[in-house]
Amino acid sequence: MTLPAARRSPLPDSSTAAGVHGDTHTGAHNPALLHHFAEPQQQRDAASLGMWVFLATEVMFFGGLFCAYLVYRRLYFGDFAAASKTINMGLGATNTAVLICSSLTVVLAVWAAQTARRTLLIVSLIITMLLGVVFLGIKGIEYAEKFEEHHVPGASFSFKNVPIPGHPGQFADPHHAQLFFSLYFVMTGLHALHMIIGLGIFLWLLTMAWKGRFTPEWHTPVEIGGLYWHFVDIIWIYLFPLLYLIDRHP
Amino acid sequence: MSEHSSAKSPLKGYFAVWIALLLGTGLTVYAATLDLAPYNAAVALGIATIKATLVALFFMHVWHASEKLTKLVVIAALFFLLLLLGLTMTDYATRLWS
Predict the structure, then answer these.
(1) Which ipTM score applies to this complex?
(2) How many A-B residue pairs are in contact by the CB < 8 A criterion?
(3) Which helix (H) or strand (E) holds B29?
(4) Which of A12, A20, A142, A180 is the most exposed place for a label (fewest CB within 10 A)?
């Protein structure tokens, strides 16, 4: 069990850090620093590294769906293009812009926490959540359209006489189109679930920020919650062209 | 990060990335309306990858990460994703060869 002590010594400023952050609480102890970290920077790095490892598992989680999409899009390209053309591209593009704007407000929130700007932090968190709600609302309009058109996979699914783009006189196979819509609903649905979880996280961040819990020394939740939000944005950046823009040229 | 913030404000960079991401979105919608034959998918994925890289490097602070392990985790995630997609496609793309 000598390993932690041996590891601690090569860190910069360890001579001063060891004196202050020993096992006994002294008056000079930084309240934001946990016992098992030598310095605040190491504590922050450990937290964001842990979040990145979680995001790596999320990459694999969504990766399976992207893989299934890739396989079937190759097999049934014409049917996928015909099905993709029935989704509302304008709503999808608007949602992309909404998420990009929310990523900006998240990065502003993290910066505000780093520089002890409480008002900017609270405003940024609120705008981020509003943009998240707008995203889900637009998603709801899109889903409602699909229900009305009977494009939701299931017993009432109907996709008759939809032409395949670029192939006059050919119509999409409803079974293959249903595969596209299954992938569309699962991928955007899982993404929307991540957005809802993100809204929950940001509501918690907002209450913490309101109470003034975050300082330049300790704002780990803002930073980590921000990483999560940006990751969900990146997933959407790929979902948008893959699902909405397969073959849009006239 | 807080150590660096006093030296130079990163806000300009954040807004530049934001503008670039919005332009990229407009560009990808425009490119989808062009008939580029087999290159439509490549262009769409290329723009998406540039946008995702901008978000990861500057919004998620991978570029300025003080911990090299963060970069290693990002590269490992991409490596295993490409392994998943690549090995699957070597199967599906070659099934009709025989």
Answers:
(1) 0.90
(2) 133
(3) helix B11-32
(4) A12
**A198 token code pair:** 């993100």
Nearest Cβ partner for B77 among A59, A238, A245: A59
Taking an 8 Å cut-off on Cβ atoms, the answer to whether A114 and B1 are in contact is: yes
**Residue B37 in contact with partner chain A when CB distance is under 8 A:** no
User: For chain B, how many structural domains are there in total?
Assistant: 2
Report the residue of A100, A101, A167 to disrupt the B interface, i.e. the one with the largest count of B CBs within 10 Å: A100
Taking a C-beta distance cutoff of 8 angstroms, is the pair A216, B6 a contact? Answer: no
For A34-69, what is each residue's pLDDT tens digit? 888 888 888 888 999 999 999 999 999 999 999 999
Question: A28: which DSSP letter?
Answer: T
Verify that B6 and B33 share a domain, yes or no. Answer: yes
B42 and B27 both lie in a single domain: yes
pTM: 0.87
Are residue B27 and residue B51 in the same domain, yes or no?
yes
Interchain CB distance below 8 Å, B78 and A97: no
Buried b (16+ CB within 10 A) or exposed e, B71-83: eebbeebeeebee
User: What is d(CA A118, CA A227) in angstroms, rounded to the nearest whole number?
Assistant: 20
Bridge partner list, A21: none
Domain A51-244 class in CATH: mainly alpha
Name beta bridge partners: A171: A163
Per the structure, the complete domain to which residue B88 belongs is given by 67-98
